[in-house]
Amino acid sequence: MAFHSTRRLLSQCTNRAIVYSQNGDPAKVLTAVSFRPLPPPAPNTVNVKFLLAPINPADLNVIEGVYPAKPSPTPGLTAEPVFVGGNEGLARVTSIGDGVSGLSRDDWVVMTKAQIGTWCTGKNVGVHDIVKVPRVDGLTEVHAATMTVNPPTAYNMLKDFVPLQEGDWVIQNGANSAVGQAVIQIAASRGLKTLNFVRPRENLSELIKQLEDLGATKVLTYDALTDKSLRNDVKEWTGGKNISLALNCVGGKETTLMTRLLGNNAHLVSYGAMSKQPLSLPTSLFIFKNLTAHGFWQSQWYLTRPREEQEQVMNTLVNLMGQGKLKPPKHEIVSISAEDSDEEAGQKVRDVITKISEGQQGKKNLLRLESSES
Amino acid sequence: MAFHSTRRLLSQCTNRAIVYSQNGDPAKVLTAVSFRPLPPPAPNTVNVKFLLAPINPADLNVIEGVYPAKPSPTPGLTAEPVFVGGNEGLARVTSIGDGVSGLSRDDWVVMTKAQIGTWCTGKNVGVHDIVKVPRVDGLTEVHAATMTVNPPTAYNMLKDFVPLQEGDWVIQNGANSAVGQAVIQIAASRGLKTLNFVRPRENLSELIKQLEDLGATKVLTYDALTDKSLRNDVKEWTGGKNISLALNCVGGKETTLMTRLLGNNAHLVSYGAMSKQPLSLPTSLFIFKNLTAHGFWQSQWYLTRPREEQEQVMNTLVNLMGQGKLKPPKHEIVSISAEDSDEEAGQKVRDVITKISEGQQGKKNLLRLESSES
Q: Secretion signal: which residues (chains A, B) (predicted)?
């Protein structure tokens, strides 16, 4: 490490954010900036300190400018307006404005407003843009920092489209994705059976074991979808019971084949398109089997559902997490010390993103931006 | 015409049906058979005489064995069990079994049970498989004979998926189909605007004129869908109002492009696949624009909706027809005289079907099977 002349003046700049001023390759456009302590919170707002904030794939798409949700620029950090990266994260309440009820200093909160900019140490947020996370036994920081996107996506997709009873089956592809793993666990906690499809790979038996340990009933590769015997196998596993819900984050041919395993009056819910192929379905499935195809976007859910429902879902997820029924994702924490210079901090973030972009890391990276402000 | 030695013995065989004993090319497998007068109707049934029964494209698919709805064989017509063709038709009540209320001799009825076999002169039917057609002024036999499939398909698709207000827009392709024309008229009767797509063709301006006369707001060809200026044109026509319902009987690329004209939270309802191409849609439309894709099948509607609703829809359609707001399709009536031999009758039907299969006739053929039974 070279000697750094830009060591921060801690007394003046206790906060830091990872920002960009224009869209582009996140491994290039992101920089770290330091900024002064937050002023006391205005009425109906609180100041928070972020403890841990994941780098999600969608965050990179937002920075690239190819994601439909656009953040608003944050004023006051630098001379020109900049965007703070990050959509999800766990924060701790540090001070409370007038008129705020139900929140105390040191409470944990997560963001319900999309694209709020979580890759920073401290922030002022409106009370309607956050929800309190009960500190139940067994709930870790990693759990809480990753609980507002993937787990509720899984939970809501299993709840909002088809009334499922214990013993009912659900099919999904991309079963190894963060949402896929949450689907397996939440389904298992409800006594639902899951038929899971994953990409063929070298260490398949290891992955199957891992997903079965989470509660997967069956795990198959996309290759099995072209196997003529599959339909009979499925019939045997389900005891001939119709499958009425399929969850899709892949698209393309695999999804067409998976959808054929559904019974009459079923629902196909898409929340991703990892194959980058469109959803292509025979019209006859819609007309003669009464298939309905939906999309699900958790950001939209937060915009349209009442606060009580949001809190209820968060509490349910927190309890599952506390009981060990919903495990945190495999992860790696990227710590940025309060004493790192902005240059060092920026470089660390860009390096992690380069590593993420290079491929199948199989774990979630979480930023821990340390600050000297408490 | 050759001399026919098989002239029917009217005193014995007053009824006739167009039948097939196995699936195949309808222009080959269909024959006419004569059968004896119907016995008096059993309790809760009535005997009816068919006045007019259309030859719909789906009827040919049923005979080919490629349609998901399968008829039951009709016993007693011939030594081996045979299937009577036809799904739709207008009949007149000729005699009434015990326990039947709300029906009188000479009442008009149409079939609500699919694949009942309408290509015959007389039939015994259960009261729950028919619905009475009020004889309002202006309602013709052709109206009533074609009212159970296409008009309710149009009516229900405009009613069941999106709550539409006067001035709202609906998009559809295959706008020249029988359902498409009904959509245009029913939409116009509700003050809805329609953006209609049709295949490019030579006599386009004539077709546009014809659809506009029915009440179409805009008529364009599929070629316009690839025109970049279309989106702005549509915005201008709608005054920027979101379009939230698209009706599709085509599939393939045209439907993908049409769906892109929809706003957020829209519904795409498919009732046909004339292009024989699957429905291929970018997953992003489902996730980020909250598109929902459904199918609609009128046969299924009859199976799942209460009788009151069925009667209500039929009455609404009858009133629209009577008021001249829902015109009968362009048609040609194929009359088969009671004095034709079965051979002649069968040949007439096969000839018509050959003509239909050869292509774009642009009109509906309706069978009028005459019998000497009154």
A: none
